[in-house]
Design a protein that fits this description.
CATH superfamily: Hypothetical protein, domain 2
Order of helices and strands: HHHHHHHHHHH
Largest sheet: none
Structural class: mainly alpha
Number of strands: 0
CATH class: Mainly Alpha
Helix content: 55-70%
Strand content: under 5%
Shape: globular
Number of helices: 11
CATH topology: Endonuclease III, domain 1
């Protein structure tokens, strides 16, 4: 089972429901990872116990934004992220007939898996590669070449992203890596003085 939220019920949902995992990945930006990946659990409760891509895609955008914005908000930017989740659910409906797992089960190889993920709203190159690595490392979804498609995020024994977090210790290592990357990026900035 995944270890991303610190909440066993939320982690169980992410581990068992593909749409919850996908929504968590969509929301994993500009807020703490634990909060992003717990949001699908909270959203499911707010929607009456179901995460259904057809129902979410068909909702009035203002209604979904209101659900996202109810205290505590599901994201720092509830309106825009509600829209993004709705776009992703519409893509799941339009491209995969409502079967979220078809994003990866229909991929013949890692290159196609990466292309499938990158085609989703809100998935740029880096986020798509991280999601491919998450699928490969945590769910053993490993079509030929998945690790190459994931790039550095697919490396064995790395602690670069959410794909590598399977324990509190791994979370600490990922956080240390990210802090190191930020410090190195700051050191490369020109000195304004």
């Amino acid at each position: 089972m995944l270890w991303l939220t610190g909440d066993p019920d939320a982690d169980a949902l992410l581990s068992s429901e593909p749409l919850a995992l996908l929504i968590g990945m969509v929301l994993d930006q500009q807020i703490p990872m634990e909060r992003a990946f717990k949001a699908p659990f909270d959203l499911k409760e707010r929607l009456g116990g179901s995460l259904d891509p057809a129902a979410i895609a068909a909702m009035a955008p203002d209604d979904l934004a209101e659900i996202f914005g109810a205290k505590p908000a599901l994201h720092r930017f509830p309106r825009s992220m509600a829209g993004r989740v709705q776009e992703v659910c519409a893509a799941v409906m339009d491209t995969y007939g409502g079967d979220t797992s078809a994003i990866w089960t229909t991929a013949a190889d890692g290159k196609q898996l990466l292309a499938n993920v990158k085609a989703l709203p809100g998935f740029g190159d880096q986020k798509a590669r991280i999601f491919v690595a998450l699928l490969g490392k945590q769910f053993a979804i490993q079509p030929a070449g998945w690790d190459m498609a994931a790039g550095v995020y697919g490396e064995t024994g790395s602690y670069r992203s959410v794909a590598d977090i399977d324990s509190p210790e791994a979370l600490t290592k990922v956080r240390q890596f990210k802090q190191q990357m930020k410090a190195e990026a700051r050191a490369k900035l020109p000195n304004p003085g």
